[in-house]
Amino acid sequence: MLYSAKPLGQSSKRIFAPTGGSNDPGRAIQYKRGSLERSDLLASPTDQFHAWFEDAVSANVYQPETVTLATASLPDGKPSARIVFMKELDDKGFVIYSNWETSRKSKDVKSNPQAALTFWWREMERQVRVEGSVERLTNEESQVYYDTRIRGSRIGAWASPQSQVLKGREELEVFVDEVEKRFEGEDKIPVPDFWGGARVVPEVVEFWQGRESRLHDRFRYTKVVGGDGKGEWNVERLSP
Asked: For the Pyridoxine 5'-phosphate oxidase dimerisation C-terminal domain, which residue ranges apply (predicted)?
């Protein structure tokens, strides 16, 4: 006779169907704060993102520049994701800053210069997804942003071998002390060659507005390059 390892009716699930702050016990929270129509959208996804970002700032969304950056290495195809800050938006795309020598993301991008971004603005029940190629900014371009950082963060960019194993916090403090001595008395600190900006140049951008019963409004911009080499954006509504 075989016996179950667990008493009858006892589940192995550690978490099951969390309700996400719903006032209705056992029922998931419903999104009711807005809708999205094709007529609401601007012709360019970067223009549309800028409009939504300004809405997020006006609505006091907490750190609306917060974004999940996902990359994947080749040839194994293993993905990795982390929370970063978008620091710039221009007509070309979305810019984040990082160590591009030792970090996991740098290794992924070297083998596979493609990335995805996901913004989630809870207070507005909105999400933006971006997929595209990654290109490094020049040192001159990166220096402009680097100069806006507090001194400790500029020193830290030099000192931290990002994602590498440390024996302890003390080892990192030694690195910081060495860099402090190197730039002692200097206010203008050059951006490290291994640190700087990277732009995700969008090929696909999706705007998502939460709606009740999970019948969300989703619109996808897809870059279409014509025979003249110039790109246009095709916009389609997606099923939720």
From this structure: 195-240
For strands 79-89 and 66-72, give the pairing.
antiparallel
Residue 180 lies in a domain: no
Name 216's Cβ contacts closer than 8 Å, sequence gap at least 6.
31, 208, 209, 210, 240
Task: Look up 214 and say whether it is catalytic.
Answer: yes
Query: CA-CA distance, 49 to 94, in Å (whole number)?
Result: 10
Exactly one of 214, 218, 220, 237 is catalytic; name it: 214
Tokens standing for residue 227:
């025979």
Write out pLDDT tens, residues 82-113: 999 999 999 999 999 999 999 999 999 999 99
Please state, rounded to an integer, the average pLDDT across all residues of the chain: 93
131 is a domain residue: yes
Residue 145 lies in a domain: no
Number of domains in the chain: 1
Q: What's the whole-number mean pLDDT along residues 169-175? A: 95
